[in-house]
Amino acid sequence: MSFRDTLWALLVVVLWAFNFIVIKTGLDEFPPLLFSCLRFVAAAVPAVLLVGRGGIPWRVILGVGLTLGAGMFSFLTLGMAHGVPPGLASLLMQFQALITPILALAVLGDQPSSWQKAGIGVAVAGIVLIGWELSASASVLGMLLVLGGAASWAMANIQIKQAGNIDAFRLIIWMSLVPPVPLALLSLFFETGQAEALRGLTFTGVAAVLYTGLASTVLAFGIWSRLIRKHSPTVVAPFSLLVPVFGMAFAALLLGEDFGPYRLTAAALVFFGVFLAVLGPRLSPLLQKTRPARPLTTKP
């Protein structure tokens, strides 16, 4: 993975980490399913009028729209609405980095390298440590819902890889047409307060919808999908493990969430795990060069 693509992946990490703060703000303005619906309306309109489909098959648009759109984001917002704080939500969503390589091995036959296995193992240990320290403050149902979002994200990663040579930016825009309909119907039957939220629309609510729709969905997932298509999902997925680290930092700075030794230790584990998974394969040749050569021996 090139240095340039690494920087793109880090930009996605920052956009997604801040997105959890924005979601918490948006949930104060809208019911969760309605908020998710509006997010994709903002992502799709008027972009679909300006950006052509580019020959992307409708089956790909529908499949990714249901898993990445309706599945992932509805589970995430519902989980946060059930009491999962932004820091823990950003953490639980990154279990997709563990699920993705498993699905990639089962579906695509992608074998993770030893470096990637070690890095994912270290990073997952950090995630488990954070989850153990934070879990007492969140409901079990909320945590299970967010984990459902992580599984949906992993499925979408595999679908995007299977789609082959397609324009990721166009895919994200056009797949955003799919979620509004099922999310609107689910909101209609299972939520209340939609009319009041829309009548009392505030600047904060509009800003939350635009950020989640344009920055976090179109821009961030457009970049992410391009990276998934260009590289193996096993290589790209570990970057998402950095999201809870940045997410906790944003939560501490903007929401006053407290840091403790467990979270700092876990964050260090996540950073080191991503370092191993992403940069480990590049270090192997360097380690081979720096290793002292064995002295030649001659038989007596």
Automatic annotation (TrEMBL):
Top-level division of the source organism's lineage: Bacteria
Listed GO CC annotations: membrane
Membrane topology summary: Multi-pass membrane protein
Keywords: Membrane, Transmembrane, Transmembrane helix
Pfam families named among the record's database cross-references: EamA (PF00892)
Residue span(s) of domain EamA: 7-131, 141-278
Location within or outside the cell: Membrane
Transmembrane parts of this sequence: 7-27, 33-51, 58-81, 87-108, 115-132, 138-156, 168-190, 202-224, 236-256, 262-281
InterPro entries: AA-Vitamin_Transporters, EamA_dom, EmrE-like
Listed name of the protein: EamA domain-containing protein
